[in-house]
Design brief:
homodimer, alpha+beta, BirA Bifunctional Protein, domain 2, Rossmann fold, 3 domains, 42% helix, elongated
Chain lengths: 450, 450
């Protein structure tokens, strides 16, 4: 018999497998996000991975920007894999407008694909985690977007994080009163580069590339430095801005909305030191038109914003003539997971089960299986080791996987109706009568069973 | 300004959107499956949607069988979207063998794509929900696979379901002792058609197509009719089979394993009437080599098996020379959801939130937002309606979405520190002082908040 030629097992460049430890952390993060979204009344939706390319590209879309995985299917259709969740959401709302009813609040947690050059921390397949409220211009939706972001990070276990906010109307108004509205695109393009090129770079580019005079350069640079770190500073900053914006009605509207947002957040119990007002943030040039959100981890500011979003005027203008204003944000799941890993916030177990029932005597298989199911009924997860291998080997397996407790029973224990319960953290081992076993396990596992 | 040409919003043939009501049901189903898998120590994994086509097709794979979405990517690689979770799992285990450790128990809930002809209830994109134990031949794994299926359907709320089991070794042994092993593939092919062609069809095909004599035809047909519906019948059936199998060691091994499986299931507390032994089920011709599982809903037998699986000898032989025996099953998520819908087992709400805070006075926005967050802190989900529309419109929204309670407050209520609490089921409305609001809501919502 000739030896068969094997196929080399490998994944495509830019794609990855998730092993149990990584996947358990990911599922916990997704569950937490879902729970927070749902608590605010956001409903889940899903859309197909594949769409007509026309839908994803939009009119005159620049394919190279979107790095589509695009091909012709068996039915000769030009199709592509979705590259974000925003365009499918726009198509979805236009298509199901009558069934959804407005306002409509949805979250969408899904995989997207981009054929871009893979690099550290950037993959061709990754998960997005978006939530949006559409069909309303009410500031309530903007306020709740801020609360959702806040409660999400708190629920994930972060204490030190900062949500930076702005309203594009204020920024637009300030440029307008200084007569810079025609250069606003170029100015915003420079401002977006601030984290990379720093103040000196901004100063240089505003002067050399955009061609601003010194006074205007200093005005813009001052904007980016003037960050209000608490409620009192925000009030002062907004008062100053109001003073400058008397001739700009949109600028004053922006001030009103952000004031109300700050007031409402504080009155809802948010710690004001977690909210910073930064009149210079814009997040891109075109899409957002009102409130802007960025979220930073105080202990890892270098990774950039891990949850960003804002208000937009019209979600689905490519697909419907109905105007759909909205506001929302997107959680950078993979970036956040990497950050939590770096901060030591992730559990490291490679098993979701807490108890390993070891197998000492294969003839008592029914007993091991029975006790496993008994334990599970109390809400404790339990795995039964399938083979009667040496106890040392089974213990090694238990430690490697991260079980908290191992049960052992051989002839003596079965005769006495006992189970040896080994706490794998303390190493302590106790013989426990079977009727007391579940209570004993609950005691060892403490709060972790809930 | 010329009217812009809109892109028609539409999904590809065979693909679908999930609106909130469908998606909420789906998430509940997935959560339940996950919880049961985890309670038995199965860990989650994930693999990429795209793989090298060579990996998915295997050696000499028949592409037409697999209906791949296949294309050449920007890097000139021949890639395909996964058509099931089994082949990626085989590739995954071979690739990460050293990191996983054996035995390895995993579940994988993921989307797969098949470019087959769409028809009622069959889509080109659907979700699979698999669990497997690999790296062991122990019957413990076969037994726990049965328990997982059982506990899963119980957890989903089914009372009337039947798990049909068999062991391919018994079937192979019986054919062997009758000297029919060379015709076994043809015979199994006919047996697999039983649900469609019924006994008369089986009888006719065995005679005319396979060319069996009358005695052999009757022997096979008897096999398919002889289903043991409880422990006692199973024992009798296995005793009869043992009698016939004295000259077949593999047949007797099959009898031993299925006897032990039945004993262990009963001793672990499974209701024996939910397990049926059917010596004729094979589930395909090649893949499974030991225990076989099929799951039927007693109230909807016509939809076929909703959870099927079995034991196999070697998971990843295309990718590694290490032999990896295993056992597992796959939950037919979409078929099951359709069934639960038909049986009226699905919640029909289109919102995950229980309480709608209506907005009566836009000037009190901060109060509506504040009370929403207050309620959420107690574990009750609450949505704040963003616009001060007519109360009737907001109530219509609340009823349409399926909220259980609406809160209303205007000038009078704010003056008295009260909230009007409207139970949307009973229609009853009560004025409740704010400090008592959460307790009052908990009372109305009862157990549903947990």
């Amino acid at each position: 018999m000739s030896k068969k030629q094997l196929i080399k097992p490998r994944t495509l460049k830019g794609f990855r497998d998730y092993l149990p430890d990584a996947m358990l952390a990911r599922e916990t993060l997704i569950d937490t996000a879902r729970q927070v979204y749902r608590s605010y009344g956001f409903s889940p939706i899903d859309t197909p991975a594949l769409e007509y390319s026309e839908i994803l590209l939009g009119k005159g879309g620049d394919e190279s920007d979107k790095q589509l995985f695009r091909f012709t299917d068996q039915g000769d259709r030009d199709v592509s894999m979705r590259f974000d969740l925003t365009v499918p959401f726009a198509r979805f709302t236009a298509q199901h407008l009558n069934d959804l009813g407005m306002p409509f609040k949805r979250y969408h947690i899904g995989t997207v694909w981009r054929a871009e050059k893979p690099q550290k921390g950037r993959y061709r397949e990754f998960m997005q985690c978006d939530f949006d409220t559409i069909g309303t211009e009410s500031n309530t939706a903007d306020i709740e977007t801020l609360l959702v972001i806040h409660d999400l990070f708190e629920a994930l276990g972060f204490e030190r994080f900062t949500i930076r906010i702005n309203n594009r109307l204020i920024l637009n108004g300030l440029l307008e009163v200084r007569g810079l509205e025609e250069k606003s695109v170029a100015i915003l393009r420079v401002l977006d580069k601030l984290p990379k090129i720093l103040h000196d770079g901004v100063r240089r580019e505003l002067s050399e590339v955009v061609g601003l005079n010194d006074a205007d350069v200093e005005f813009i640079v001052n904007l980016t430095s003037d960050i209000a770190r608490n409620g009192k500073e925000a009030e002062e900053l907004l008062t100053r801005a109001s003073g400058q914006l008397q001739s700009s009605s949109i600028g004053l509207l922006g001030v009103d909305r952000i004031s109300e947002l700050l007031d409402a957040a504080i009155s809802a119990g948010i710690d004001g030191s977690r909210i910073q007002l930064d009149l210079s943030i814009a997040r891109g040039l075109d899409y957002y038109t009102g409130t802007i959100y960025e979220t930073f981890l105080n202990d890892l500011p270098g990774i950039g914003s891990v949850c960003s979003g804002g208000r937009y005027d019209n979600l689905a203008e490519l697909f419907t003539s109905q105007k759909l204003p909205g506001v929302g944000a997107s959680l950078g799941l993979d970036r956040l997971l990497a950050a939590m890993d770096e901060l030591g916030m992730l559990e490291t177990a490679a098993t979701p089960a807490q108890v390993l029932v070891t197998m000492f005597d294969a003839n008592r298989l029914c007993d091991y299986v029975r006790i496993g199911r008994e334990i599970r009924k109390s809400g404790i997860s339990a795995e039964v080791f399938p083979d009667a291998k040496a106890v040392g080997k089974q213990m090694k397996y238990a430690n490697r996987k991260g079980f908290r407790v191992a049960l052992i029973a051989g002839e003596d224990e079965f005769e006495n109706g006992h189970w040896q319960v080994k706490d794998l953290d303390s190493g302590e081992q106790t013989a426990v009568p079977e009727p007391e076993l579940v209570a004993h396990l609950q005691h060892i596992l403490g709060d972790t069973t809930h």
